[in-house]
Each structure stands twice: as structure tokens, then as C-alpha cells.
Design goal:
Helix content is 31%, strand content 20%. It is α+β, with helices and mostly antiparallel strands. The protein has a single domain, classed as Cathepsin B, Chain A (Alpha-Beta Complex), CATH 3.90.70.10. Strands 1, 2, 3, 4, 5, 6, 7 and 8 form an 8-stranded mixed beta sheet that branches. A hairpin with an 8-residue loop joins strand 6 and strand 7. Helix 1 crosses helix 2 and helix 3 packs parallel to helix 4. The C terminus is likely disordered.
């Protein structure tokens, strides 16, 4: 696909501190882009990881990341072709000892919290046109990608899509050393999702959520909501 338009967002770069915090690091970059006064730190990275992880495994879920964005006053929109948590059973080698019923419980709890906070939930495939639409609608996409061609590991990996031009998409990969890695559009299309499981969380400014009612934050530790 070739487009004649160009759009580049100056999303600040933050490198993930741990192997399992690509989701939190990606969300932090977007929040900093939308709110330049936000302070990025390893402490915030771990706060978001605790909120967004699926508990039984270290990775962040789409609803966990949307939840973390929403409780900090941002709007969030989830797009996925999945009905449940997805991709866990596709990891190789297979993760042993995972309590799937407990993981499903935590996953559904975060989904419910997202719906209470007004997060939009859209069922569908994610294509290049999806990324164009989100970017041109002033929503910054966190995209789940196949880590094998991106970082050389057979794992799902969250990145920030920061723009496009006539032949490339640009991403902030939290395992890179700098912002705006270029990926050819045709190649990008093949790297979306992990083994068929596609997830995207778009984050945007939402003044309606700037002040949350007390009952929406009461389940956070007193030092976790900043």
C-alpha cells in the first residue's frame, strides 16, 4: 500500500527497563507526548506494569494498558480480533504452571474496569488502514507486534506507531535505542499481531476523564495514582 500523505508525531522515546515492560514503556511514551508535564521514571513503569499485567504471566494485556491510561486522565480505545486474553497458548516454549482460570479472572476484571471508565472496545482486524485512521483521528496507537522480525525473539511485543510517509510506518520500539524506527508498509502489515492475535490500544486526550470520581481509583494503592 502506498499513500501520498505524511504524518509524523514527535513522540518522546523511553527505553523499557525490563524484558517484560514493553507495554508500560510504550504507554509512557504516548502519555508523555500527550502531556509534556508527565514525569517518566522506572517507578511509573513498574506502577503501570502492576496495573496492566495479566498477573499469571508478566506481559501486559490490552485492557490493562487501556485501564492504566484511563485512570491517569487519558482516553483509550481498544481494537482486537480476540474474544479473550489471546496469545498465551501460542508462546513457545509453552509457559507451564499458568493458572488460566485465574488469568481469565484478572483479564475480565480489567476489561470491566475499562468499560466503567468509558474505554471504547472495538472487535475487528488491524490493518494498515486501521493505523492510518487512528493517527489521523488524533489517537496514538500502541500496537502488539510479532517480536521475531522486530527484536529477534518469538514473543509478542508492544510498540508505539508514531507516523507514516509514502512508503514507511514509523514506530518507537521500547527495546531500541532511539525513536522512529522505519518499517516498510508491506512488511509492517505482516508484523501486526502475534500468530494471528491482533491488539491495538489507541490513547488520546480526553478532558472528560481528567478528574476521576473517588470510587474509580479506590482500588489503587495510595502511592500508585499520580
Amino acid at each position: 500500500m502506498i499513500v501520498d500523505t505524511k504524518l509524523r508525531l514527535e513522540v518522546p522515546f523511553y527505553r523499557q527497563s525490563f524484558d517484560f515492560t514493553c507495554g508500560p514503556a510504550s504507554l509512557m511514551m504516548v502519555m508523555k507526548y500527550l502531556d509534556r508535564e508527565m514525569k517518566l521514571s522506572k517507578s511509573l513503569e513498574m506502577d503501570i506494569w502492576r496495573e496492566a499485567s495479566m498477573v499469571e504471566i508478566y506481559g501486559a494485556s490490552r485492557y490493562g494498558l487501556a485501564f492504566s491510561a484511563a485512570i491517569r486522565g487519558f482516553g483509550a480505545r481498544v481494537i482486537s480480533n480476540l474474544g479473550s486474553y489471546g496469545f498465551v497458548d501460542k508462546l513457545e516454549p509453552r509457559i507451564e504452571g499458568v493458572n488460566r482460570s485465574m488469568m481469565r479472572l484478572f483479564f475480565l476484571e480489567r476489561k470491566r474496569r475499562c468499560m466503567e471508565l468509558g474505554v471504547e472496545d472495538v472487535k475487528g482486524r488491524i490493518k494498515s488502514t486501521t493505523l492510518f485512521r487512528e493517527l489521523t483521528s488524533f489517537r496514538v496507537p500502541l500496537l502488539l507486534m510479532d517480536g521475531q522480525p522486530l527484536i529477534g525473539e518469538d514473543v509478542p511485543h508492544w510498540v508505539v506507531v508514531t507516523g507514516h510517509d509514502r512508503g514507511n510506518f514509523y514506530i518507537n520500539n521500547p527495546l531500541s535505542n532511539s525513536a522512529d524506527d522505519a518499517i516498510q508498509m508491506d512488511r509492517m502489515e505482516k508484523m501486526i499481531g502475534y500468530k494471528g492475535d491482533e491488539c491495538l490500544v489507541s490513547v488520546f486526550r480526553n478532558e472528560r476523564l481528567k478528574k476521576l470520581p473517588e470510587d474509580k481509583v479506590r482500588f489503587l494503592g495510595k502511592n500508585e495514582h499520580r
